[in-house]
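User: Thanks for the earlier help. One more: Signal peptidase I. Can you show the sequence and predicted structure together?

Assistant: Of course, both are below.
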Amino acid sequence: MLLRKTEPTAPPKPPKSKSREWVDSLLFAVIAATLIRWATFEAYVIPSPSMEHSLLVGDYLFVSKLHYGPITPQTPLQVPLTHQTVPIFNFKSYSDLIQLPTYRFPGFSSIKRNDVVVFHVPHEQQYPADLRTNYIKRCIAIAGDTLEIRQGQIFLNGQPGAIAGQPQTSYFMQVTEANDEVRQALHDHGVVNYDEPDGMPVAGTDPATGAVGYTFSCPADVAAYFRQQPYVKKLEVTEPEGLTLFPDAADFHVSGAMSATPRRWQLDNYGPLPVPKKGQTIQLTPANAAIYYKIVSQYEHNQNITWKDGMIAQNGQPLTSYTIKQNYYWMMGDNRHNSEDSRFWGFVPEDHVVGKAVLIWLSLDPFGDAAHKVRWNRLFHTID
């Protein structure tokens, strides 16, 4: 009879303590929540009226990262710098940070015209893209489109664009008398002044004529209603004037680079302007260099780029042609006269896009009392 030598069995591991089980469970929950937030959905709240009336201040949203595909982080939570570890909130410039190349995983949709999109604002150049402020706007034009605005009407590739949502325009409404009836009518039609403690519009005067009335923003159907009211003497569009927009301001809030060929476009009369597309080769001249300066100098990580005598220069020499490395998009707020958007700072690079806004899961009226704080009609409302 043969005998087989056996090794002594290891003693069983002691069971985890309750505190260790709690810590492990908490760690797993944090990691799972972080992965879900990075790869699937993230919650946001609307803090400003730039998208009214499509989105209201106090709307809580779910933003899908599955539509366009989640993008890998550009900056780690801790950043090695020589022999130190620097928390991300202590950095002073790009040179303090190690920035990783980004990669977008496949999504089940591309960015389309009229999508409501969350993205990293392009002009906060003191931060890496994924540490910048998140904006939410409507995608008006996609890569390869030519955009134009005529008297407030969007044209894409020479044809009137079909714009979703409820775009707003600013008006001055001259009235026979500023009274509670007018204020109540404005309130009933969703007209809000977020600068006032109660949110109600306040009567003022037209600086040009001295006429009494109200300045406010509203959709076209609300404006049509007020034009028919007997107490309204006049309702006129009020567009901000004297703005220096992109591409006259070639580098909004970053440097003083200005176009060598001023266009003097304004909010309601803008373009035509081509939206750059990946693989497109551009012949650069003083007439168009300002359109592409931020793309070449900032978004596509080229080295030794400067602005010199109205032209883009690399290593001190004028750059006469350039091939676009990624797609770009044109984003605008639905509150057309009260939105700092692509008309100010230009194109949004594809690698700045966070996701698509898909659902309002909660909406709180900042001026509502306890009984009217929740906007019940907006709960679980899909976003157009």
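User: Great, one quick takeaway?

Assistant: The domain at 168-241 is CATH 3.30.70.80 (Alpha-Beta Plaits).
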